[in-house]
Amino acid sequence: MADSDIYSKQIEYQKEGLARRSAWKLKFDGVDCTDVVMRDMLSIDITDNESESIDDLQIKVADNDGKWVQRWLTESIFVGASVRGLQVEAWVGVEKDGKVVQQKAGTFHVDSMKAGGPPSVVNIKASSLPAKGGIADEKRNKAWEGYTLRGIGAEIAGKAGLSLVYDAADISYGRREQNDMADLAFLRALCHEAGMCLKVSDMQLIIFDARSYADQPSVMTISWMDGQYTKWDLETGSRDILYDSCVLRYAHPYKGLIEGHAESDKYADNDYHNQLVITNRRVESVAEANEIALQELRLKNDFGECATFTLPGNPGLMAGQNVTLEGFGYWSGKHPIKCCKHKLSSRGYTTEIKLGGDVSMHSSGYGDYTLGQSQVVRIGTIVDMDDGGRRARVKFTQQDFISDWLPIIHFPTWFIDDEHKTKRASHKHKVEEKWTDILDSIGGNLTGAETKLDGSHFHDIIWEDHEIDRLEWFPDINNRVVCIFPTGSDTHGYVVGVIK
């Protein structure tokens, strides 16, 4: 596309954006104050974060006649004992051709108010954290015995007047100590350890597994110079931030050295590696070490590579959604929105999105586990699932035992579909190579197994008139599955296929 065409397209898109009017709404303690605020409004910023950081709202208004300081805020302070904790509900939206599209941006609680001049300006800052319960600032000591992660989250949420939204595999604890920590900091530490994300939004405490969102479709595609955006910025982390692999080593007092590995999709087999090394985490198995290495690598790299785009106001965009970039070279691919900022000022309504690393690092993918040379293949039935379906315990009737937690090696469809064929060619080849290795293992170690071509990307295995398929999605309890134990042991193995 010629530069003149790009410029014309951007001008056309900007005119379309100007034709849309903002349709925001604000309520203070349940009272609609939209008109009052908008008359004096200098700017309103709403920041929606996926996790780690707290959502916030900032309102800046002109106070030339003094009514905000002398009357409205003073009355709020006298009536409510303090302006801190004043509840503000916010909606973002646009109006075009007589139609209004609005989206609730959240419920916020005023943290502070600042006024100054000249010119006379009032700044009101609020966050999604409620003042009730001291969830963020009151340090406590408590022993949590016999709780699950969901149970701890529910109790902390209830104490703060929040409802719990739990979208992850539950985790059981024998005993956990909360020593001189605020509830939110303690819960965040548990979630970080488990590879989960935590956020507080719209009077909800939300615990979720970002990896389960990796396969969700993108809500929009941004192409190189397509005119959708008015500003853009691309960056990669410095060498001490962006890692291409992780190794976890733990000297177990009874089992000896346990080592786990994980690699990002940017990993190359050469001498120029930036490796994250972890030696302070206790693990009980290679499978657990592999999983923790993957979690730590993902968390470290979440902001290691990112892209920021400023768009005409779009109330439908929010943190946690996926956006696909096309034509941006190294940055091309599907990325999660880590931070979404809705901004309103005299210049109009804009939405700024900050994208995290490619979502391929959010999936517990096939490439993180290496199969050894000496292998045993067994057929069993899944009796328990954990960690959002990424681990399973399998009952082997013939050998009369139930396995320890086994990682599940799956092959996500989006790595190989036609839409991503060009930019995911390397992933496609890696999938085929890995599945071919597994087929060879099954065919050579399972009595009566037969390999046959089906004309697609992959071979099939036929065993006792049953077809063995690669795990395109995570299996379910009671599914019959194929497992490979690389060392011949009963503990360090992998679930690699499902029997139809």
Q: Could you walk me through the main structural features you see in this protein, from its secondary elements to its overall organization?
A:
This protein has four domains: 1-128 and 202-237 and 305-363, Baseplate protein-like domain - beta roll fold (Phage tail proteins - horseshoe like beta roll fold); 133-201, Baseplate protein-like domains (Phage tail protein beta-alpha-beta fold, 3-Layer(bab) Sandwich); 238-302, Phage tail proteins - 2 layer sandwich fold (2-Layer Sandwich); 366-499, OB fold (Dihydrolipoamide Acetyltransferase, E2P) (Beta Barrel). Helix content is 19%, strand content 41%. The protein has seven helices and 31 strands. Strand 23 and strand 24 form a beta hairpin. The radius of gyration is 26 Å and the shape is elongated.
In CATH terms, the superfamily of the largest domain is: Baseplate protein-like domain - beta roll fold
Radius of gyration: 26 Å
| Integer average pLDDT | 77
> Structural class from helices and strands?
alpha+beta
Tell me about the biggest sheet? 14 strands, mixed
> What is the percentage of strand-forming residues?
35-45%
What's the total number of strands? 31
- The low-confidence parts are 1-19, 361-374, 413-424
CATH architecture of the largest domain: Roll
Classified by CATH, the class of the largest domain is: Mainly Beta
Number of helices: 7
Shape: elongated
> Helicity, in percent?
10-25%
